[in-house]
Amino acid sequence: MATTPKILAFAGSTRVESFNKKLVKIAAAGAGKAGAEVTLIDLRDFALPLYDGDLEERDGLPENAKKLKVLFLAHDGLLLSAPEYNSGITAVLKNTLDWVSRSESDEEKPLACYAGKVAGLMSASPGALGGLRGLFQVRAILGNIKVLVLPDQVAVAKAHEAFNPDGSLKDAKQQAAVEKLGATLAGTIAKLKGQTN
Ligand SMILES: Cc1cc2nc3c(=O)[nH]c(=O)nc-3n(C[C@H](O)[C@H](O)[C@H](O)COP(=O)(O)O)c2cc1C
Q1: What burial letters (b/e) apply to 164-182, b meaning 16+ CB within 10 Å?
Q2: Are 112 and 14 in contact, with CB atoms under 8 Å apart?
Q3: Which residues, 6 or more positions from 70, have their beta carbon under 8 angstroms from its beta carbon?
Q4: With a 6 A CB cut-off, is 123 part of the ligand 1 pocket?
Q5: Which residues are within 8 A (CB) of 33 and not within 5 positions of it... i.e. 6 or more apart?
Q6: Is the beta carbon of 30 within 6 A of some atom in ligand 1?
Q7: Quick check: 111 pLDDT over 80?
Q8: Residues 68-99 pLDDT 10s
Q9: In the prediction, which pLDDT does 3 show?
Q10: pTM of the full predicted structure?
Q11: 19 ligand 1 Cβ < 6 A
């Protein structure tokens, strides 16, 4: 029986040196240690045009949206590190969520890529709030598209000073909290799948 939790992990930033990419990698490692199979992706590899209904009607879904849908469908949960732009969700993340939400046929159930998934959220920002305000939006959006979002979340403030050169967090407690977020997600999915670990 396929009971191993499968988690798709990514950041809501395409920036090469993204703090959120670093952060989600830590949570992904925590989930892996807790027994999950984690697929870490970079949205930079899945460039998409801005969602446009006319474009969709004319050409259907872009290839990268189709690839992302396949990935979402193949996983039970999401680990998401979401930066905050002007106190809200980044355009690249919202655009990705929008394209992935689109059905390709009448047979495909609405929100098939999201329904029943569990998500763990985190954020990192050079600011004092660590991107916390954006997380409220991401949480609300995911909840509205049938994703169960874990109550625990981590926001890393002063992100430009927070990481060691090896990608770990300087603050050991924060490092542990982010790893634990990944582990909690893995454990929650395992329980929902009827596993006992
Ligand atoms: C358009 C724009 C708006 C931003 N607004 C905020 C903000 O409201 N709050 C905040 O903490 N940081 C804000 N920032 C700074 C980002 O947190 C910072 O660029 C961060 O490094 C982005 O995440 P990344 O490192 O994962 O790419 C903003 C950056 C940009 C480009």
Answers
A1: eeeebbeeeebbebbbbbb
A2: no
A3: none
A4: no
A5: 179, 182, 183
A6: no
A7: yes
A8: 999 999 999 999 999 999 999 999 999 999 99
A9: 86
A10: 0.96
A11: yes
